[in-house]
Structure formats: structure tokens, C-alpha cells
Records
---
Amino acid sequence: MPINTLAPFLLTVIAGAMVAAQPAFNGQLSGHLGSPLRAALVSFTAGALIMLAAVSVLAYRAGWPSLERISNTPPHLFVIGGALGAVFVTTASWAAPKIGTGSFFALLFAAQLIAAMAIDHFGLFGIEERSVTLLRVLGAGFLSVGAWLVVNH
């Protein structure tokens, strides 16, 4: 595997393993704080502060984007990623302790794959179109069956 493929592959595997632990920690935090919304707020605040520090270090070397570049960015792009992340973190904080982390992620992966295939197929949100094929549908079907097995057995 070439390095330009290996590095993103390995980082994705590491990130996936880290994300698998996130609902467990946020679920515990939710229990301590008495609310998944409070847990999500703390999680996002901590993440924002860590990202501020990381971006500040990188900006010291590479600079900040110009005001022109910022003003040419569609306004919804400043909000939508964080809003979608807030839904995920809040839902994970609430649902994972109730249904288990394995069930949560089984359902999440199946739903993500089906939604991602629709996004690819229709070229939504600026993504290049990639047609749904029979093999892709079979793969999504197998993943969905796997999710069902994890949730129900």
C-alpha cells in the first residue's frame, strides 16, 4: 500500500477506535452532569479549546486565512459541521449507555453507509457522483444484517 494511502488508512483506523470510546466517556459525563446536552457542551468546549490551541500553533507557521477568503465562505459552512457533530455527540451520550456501545455503533455505521451511498449516488453537498452498484447495495445489506445481529443477539 502506497504511503499516500497508508497514512490516511491508519489514521482513520486510529480515529475510529478513539470514536468508539467517545460515547462511553460522554455517557459517564452525562450521568455525572445529569444531561446528555450538558455532556455534549462540555465535550465540544474541550474540543474547541484543544482545536484552538492546535490551529494557533499551525497558524503561527502558516498564517491565518485572509478576510477575503473567510468572507467568500458560504455562511452555513461555519455552522453545519458543528451542528451535525452536536447531534451525534448528544445522541451518543444518551443512547450508548442505554443500548450499549456495540449496538449504537452497529446502527450508526449501517445508517452512515446508506446515507453516504445516497450522497455519493446523487452527488449531494458538492460530492462527486458515484453510482450505486449491485455490489455496493449488497455490501450495505450485509452491514445492515450485521448491525441487526449485533443489536439483537
---
Amino acid sequence: KITTKQLGDRGEQVVVDYLVESGHKIVARNYKTKLFEVDIISQKAQMLYFTEVKYRSDHDFGEALDFINKKKQQKMHLSVAGFMATHPEYADFRPTLAVAAVGKDFCLEEWFELDE
């Protein structure tokens, strides 16, 4: 039986493949500290994308964006601040929050920037 972690890893790989094909350089995967985790950090031009990946085996419980509530967005902003504070080499980059939805067939359903 496939574990939840394996499902998540496989879903994240789908997003990584998409981002690389779209011209992104992957900076980090599963970047963790005691306070936060970022699924994928990527760079394209002078932008630094902090992508939250949501895998859904079905839509009975809502769409990917439904799971990015105010509290989750606050945690995402905290992760951006923490990463930027500890990685001065990216000081000239504009950090941007993004969300990716991966369906049960491991196809990317959507990837989009979050409106601030």
C-alpha cells in the first residue's frame, strides 16, 4: 500500500517537472524549519516562488484552493520571511506565493500565483 508521504512526494514531483519545463530553477524541496515547511521553492527571472502542493484523490472535500485559508496563507508568509532572512543571496528576488493542484491520476490540474 502506498503511503500518504509517497503520494505527496509523487505529486510534488509532478509539479517540479512542470516548473522545470516552464523555465524554473528548483532552489529547494521540502524546506523545513521548526516553524514552517515549504513544498517547493523555485526561481524564474527575478522571482522566487514558494509553492504549496495539494494532492487530491477526488474533489469531494473541495478544490486545492479551498485548503489555502487565511491561516495557511499566514504560515506561507512566515515561511517566505524566514527563508528570505536566512538566504541573503535572494535579497534582490521578489518572493511570490503559489499553489499547485495535482489530481489522483498525478496530472497537474493547475499552478497559480496567490493574489496577495
---
Amino acid sequence: RRCRRQAQEARVETIFNSLPVDITFVDKADAVCYFSQSKERVFPRTKAVIGRKVQQCHPQKSLHVVNRILEDFRSGRRDAAEFWIDLKGRLIYIRYFAVRNKNGEYLGCLEVTQDITDVKKIKGEKRLL
């Protein structure tokens, strides 16, 4: 069983690392528990952030916003928040999602970051056929 579980965990991690987005999971105690390592990660992370409070991973000037989002997620006032910024000429889309179990209990949040510069240039259609 353990080997199958380890193989499954490795597969899931490979899937997350293959996505064109960066994913970070923060638990209900605001500790960073996981981050994906996509090829073109927008905001680099090192293993040193695991276990660190998410507030320590953000600039001081944005802490009040981070704390408000987390409190809103905890209280159920909202389930998502989104921002976009210009970073060195690239348009970066940052979304936060509350993670809840089937009973609605807050388990933490996901931060999903994506460089959408090229996505914004899409026009018309491109079909499979």
C-alpha cells in the first residue's frame, strides 16, 4: 500500500508541476504547506517557506489585504479573491480560493498564479479540427 500511495503522490505532484499555473496551499493556521514547481514559476519559492506563516511571504504593505482575505475565507464571507499586476512587462493573474471540506469547514486556501500576457492576445477561435 505504501508504495502505491507514494507513487500516487508523486504522480499528483508531477501533474501539478505540469500545469501552466503556480499553486501554493496554505492551511487553516496560515502556514504554507505545499507549492508546485512549474517550469516558469512567477514567484520563486524555496523549501524554506514550508511551515512558514503566509504573512511572512508577502510585502509588509500588502499584509492587511492578505489578512482580510484569510479572515473572509475563515468566516465564509467569501470563497475567492483575485488580483492582477504588471510584473516586468508581463500581466500576472493571482487568484486565491478558500478550500473547504464537504461540511463547509475551512481547511485553508489555494493561491493560483498565472502569467496571462499571451492569453490576453488570443483572438477568434482555434479548434481541434
